[in-house]
Each structure stands twice: as C-alpha cells, then as structure tokens.
C-alpha cells in the first residue's frame, strides 16, 4: 500500500485565532509558539523553521535573511501584517518564496488607540491612575494634575491622508478640533472636504498644532521624519502621538526634547527599536507608552488571522495566491 503524502508543516510564531488554527489543522500539521507574552526568540524561530514548510508570522517578528535561509525547503511566508515591513522580501524572492500579507483591517482600532493616547497624555490619566492606586487623592479641584484641553484644539496629521489619518480626523471633529494635514502627495479638494482636512506645509503644521499625530508609512524617506529640527518647531504645549511606525521618530531626539521640555509630552504605541524601549522614556511622567496595541481587539485579530489562513489554504490548494507582495516568484 502506498504511503500517504506527508502533511505540510506550519509554524505559527504566537497564539492566534483558534478558528483560523482549526482551519489550518484540517489541512496541515500546525505548531504554535505558545507564549503570547513575548516575541519568539530568534534562535527558537530558526530551530522551528527548519522543521516547517510554511511560516505564519506576526507583525513584530523580524524575518531577516538568516531566518529565511534557515530552511532551504521553506515554501511560503504568510504574515499577519498589512505590510511586510519586518520581512526581507528581497531575500525571500531570491529563494522563490512567496510572501503574503493581510488586508488593511486595523483602521478603526488604531484610530481608537491613537485618540486614546492623545487624551491620556493631555489629561495626565496614567499619572492620575498611579496616584489613585497609591492612595493619593489631591482633591477634585486640586491643581496637582492640571492637564491640557483636547476639545477645540488643533490636530496636525502627518501623512494623514490615508485610512487611519482620516479615521482619526473623524474622531477629532467630534471634539470640535481643527484638523490640519500634510502629505507628500496632496489629496483632491473633494477628498479634503469630505474628510474635513485642511492642507498646510509641514513646517506650518508643526508650528500650529496642539497635537501632532504621525501616519506615514515607514520608508527610507520617512525614517526619522520627525527629528530635532521638527521637534523644535512644535509648540512647547504640544503633544506628539505615534501609532504608525517607531522609526519615523528619531527617538534619541525625542528623549532630548522631552527632557528639555521643548514639547509637553507624547503618546507612543510604537518604538524605533522594538521590542526595546528607551529607558529614559519609561521614566518620564509626561509620556504614555503602550506596547504596539493598534490592532489589539478580538474582532480585528480574528479577521486578520483568518485572512492569513485563507492565504495559506489557497497556496496549499494550488490556487492563485491572494495578498501576495512578490508575485514575480511564480515566474522565476
């Protein structure tokens, strides 16, 4: 009797949707790194990948040349990420390994978090929480934790003509905020009017905004888009908010600006050297820090994981691969 062909082997770098995993287990052998509290160590990732045919990775996993080269029989890299920013797509393409991503499903969840960081930083909510837990209650009209008003202020969106920027603008209008935006490619007058956006040059946006919110994609051109010069242009009473990519900010320059009180504070969900966070930032009371929670809602993560499952099952079934960022591998 002929032996049944071996089942494809999938390695998943952290726990994801059980429904998505169940779908994958019906077609393949699936192994999951079970600790959701930490990023899979590189050595563990490489060891697991040597025994896998398909990698199911998450946004925070750094899939570099060494990881990709660990298994010459690796067939597919399926990322639970909108962009392959942490994947060496060139190295994968050279090995004829397709790389897939997901649809842009994180818009509303990320916009919620963005606005939450804005309010938390301005109204000193984290400081207040710590005081209350420690048993300190200065009084309902104490000046001890005076914060900044959000309602009616000016919000500046850098790279803000995209989905998340527009979603943040929609929330800002509910707070009667004036919303400015700058992007290298200005939107049409119709789009600006529909989203309630006013286009201004970047330097003007930095000078006039009470809150500067970053929404640029991370590219060679946008790395350190906000550095010492840009921070000097901001108001001393202004806050910097980043839920995009950490390296858009020169983090060392931001630490210096905060220490010198060049700006009032910051709300950061992303960091230049993730998962490491500059220790100086962790000690600053005027900075609100979250560990890259933009898409961290059950419905969003469920949808994203199932798109990854769709991509993998299409590949295993020999169908056209959806959401593939390097389709040229099929012509090589």
Name its key features:
Rossmann fold; 13 helices; globular; alpha/beta; 5-stranded parallel sheet; 12 strands; 7-stranded parallel sheet; 332 residues
Q: How would you sum up this structure in a few lines?
A:
The protein is α/β, with parallel strands linked by helices.
Secondary structure layout:
Blueprint: E1 9-12, H1 18-25, E2 29-32, H2 42-49, E3 54-58, H3 65-68, E4 76-80, H4 89-94, E5 99-100, H5 107-122, H6 125-133, E6 154-158, H7 163-174, E7 178-182, H8 189-195, E8 198-199, H9 202-208, E9 211-214, H10 228-233, E10 239-242, H11 251-259, E11 265-268, H12 279-282, E12 287-289, H13 298-316
Description:
With 332 residues, the chain is α/β, with parallel strands linked by helices. It folds into two domains: 9-104 and 297-331, NAD(P)-binding Rossmann-like Domain (Rossmann fold), CATH 3.40.50; 107-289, Rossmann fold (3-Layer(aba) Sandwich). It has 13 helices and twelve strands. It has helices at residues 18-25, 42-49, 65-68, 89-94, 107-122, 125-133, 163-174, 189-195, 202-208, 228-233, 251-259, 279-282, 298-316, and strands at residues 9-12, 29-32, 54-58, 76-80, 99-100, 154-158, 178-182, 198-199, 211-214, 239-242, 265-268, 287-289. It has a seven-stranded parallel beta sheet with strand order 8-7-6-9-10-11-12, with helices on both faces. α5 (107-122) packs across α7. The protein is globular. The two termini are 37 Å apart. The relative contact order is 0.14.
